[in-house]
Design goal:
The protein contains five helices and 21 strands. It is of the alpha+beta class. InterPro entries: DUF7261.
Length: about 425
């Protein structure tokens, strides 16, 4: 009987071991199945993410290209640029959506508005970096974010001329200097606090905000593009601009009204506004000139697959450096000077907000700066300010400032209440 019991216990142990093995094998198969499924899902999600990323890149490139195309049109009308932008993107958006659908990505692409700035152009190849009065030392830009700053330089004019300085000043001066290299050629020298570097200039292409010379990476310019001063509002001025022959263009975030008034005040501080001639013309052929332009545009992207949902608002401002421009700006500043003086003004904020903060309009004697009158507005974007009892036949400065608490923009015009002499 003892042998039988031992035999039964052995059988039970064997059966138990077999059962345990089956359980462990089943658990192993189940675990492997889970791991395989998760790996497959991970691979699928990764593939979907790559598809959505490719779509986003295509939207950025396509909409950015539409902005550049609209800004290059020979027009003085912002409405025309805006219409061109919408015409181009009307064709682009369904093309991108249809293409992404064939790749398994359902896409919704919606335009969310544009922000107006100013494009500055000098397309006259026979002149240098001078203003309309052919002055070689002058202010090009005042207190503005700058993007797409490109020059095409006649290299032979550099080899036979003196050095030309482009100063970028945000409180600290940085310089882009175009000069002979001492060996019969030319180069670009970049002077930054504590650093000097050079890049050979052969084809004459300088892209300040993209950080390249002749289409190649230029460390000094790249440092300007990834660090101050181009990641914030900056003043741009030129010294010895008549020493080379070049064309150039750039886009700034200020409206024409504020930009032109600001640079005229810098270049012609004793002249009535606008001076004659002003710093810039207003149409092509009157170089250098300004036109209203699209500084930035926003687009909403909603993309999805069976395993991934993605939504993002994209801000497109080709070659903009650093964070988005946020400073409010004057879009209108029209002064009628007299014993009763009126200032018609409008301001706008880059994000489309109706609350631009505080606007101050003031008037002071040009002779000594003593204030005559001032008025402050909170949250208003469109007003007419009237000052009465202003002395007749008196030179005055009319000042406007707008602040959203984080940034401040100012305009100043000089007028004579008896009328400015020609």
């Amino acid at each position: 009987m003892a042998d039988v019991r031992r035999h039964d216990r052995a059988q039970l142990l064997l059966v138990g071991a077999l059962a345990l093995a089956v359980i462990l094998l089943s658990l192993s198969m189940l675990l492997n199945s889970v791991i395989f499924t998760e790996n497959l899902a991970t691979r699928q999600t990764h593939a979907d993410a790559e598809k959505v990323s490719s779509l986003e890149s295509a939207v950025v490139e396509g909409v950015g290209g539409a902005i550049e195309h609209a800004n290059r049109r020979d027009t003085t009308s912002f409405a025309d640029r805006n219409d061109t932008y919408y015409d181009v993107t009307n064709a682009l958006i369904p093309t991108l959506a249809n293409y992404s659908a064939t790749d398994g990505v359902a896409a919704g692409i919606e335009r969310d508005g544009v922000y107006q700035g100013t494009r500055i152009v000098d397309a006259n190849r026979s002149t240098g970096l001078t203003n309309r009065a052919n002055e070689s030392d002058w202010t090009m830009v005042n207190d503005s974010r700058v993007r797409a700053f490109r020059l095409q330089v006649n290299v032979s004019s550099v080899e036979s001329g003196d050095e030309v300085h482009i100063q970028l000043d945000n409180g600290t001066t940085h310089e882009v200097i175009v000069e002979p290299d001492g060996g019969g050629g030319a180069h670009v020298r970049i002077e930054r606090p504590g650093d000097t570097s050079t890049c050979a200039l052969e084809a004459g292409q300088i892209d300040v905000t993209a950080g390249s010379v002749d289409g190649e990476y230029c460390r000094g310019l790249a440092d300007l593009s990834t660090d101050a001063p181009l990641d914030e509002p900056v003043n741009v001025s030129v010294t010895n601009g008549d020493q080379i022959r070049a064309t150039y263009s750039l886009v700034v975030d200020r409206h024409q009204t504020g930009l032109r008034t600001a640079v005229d005040a810098d270049n012609y501080p004793g002249s009535c506004s606008p001076p004659s001639p002003p710093t810039y013309g207003t149409a092509s052929g009157d170089d250098p000139y300004t036109t209203p332009a699209i500084y930035a545009a926003t687009t909403y992207l909603d993309a999805g697959t069976t395993d991934l949902d993605y939504q993002r608002t994209l801000r497109l401002a080709p070659d903009e450096v650093g964070p988005a421009a946020t400073g409010p700006t004057f879009t209108t500043f029209n002064v009628t000077a007299g014993e009763t003086s009126t200032i018609d003004w409008k301001v706008a904020d880059p994000d489309g907000s109706s609350d631009v903060g505080t606007v101050n309009i003031s008037m002071a004697y040009a002779s000594n700066g003593t204030g005559i009158a001032d008025q402050t507005y909170n949250g208003d974007t469109d007003q007419t300010t009237t000052f009465t009892g202003v002395p007749n036949d008196t030179a005055v400065y009319v000042n406007g400032s707008v602040s959203d608490g984080a940034s401040l923009r100012q305009v100043t015009e000089r007028h004579d209440t008896g009328g400015c002499s020609p």
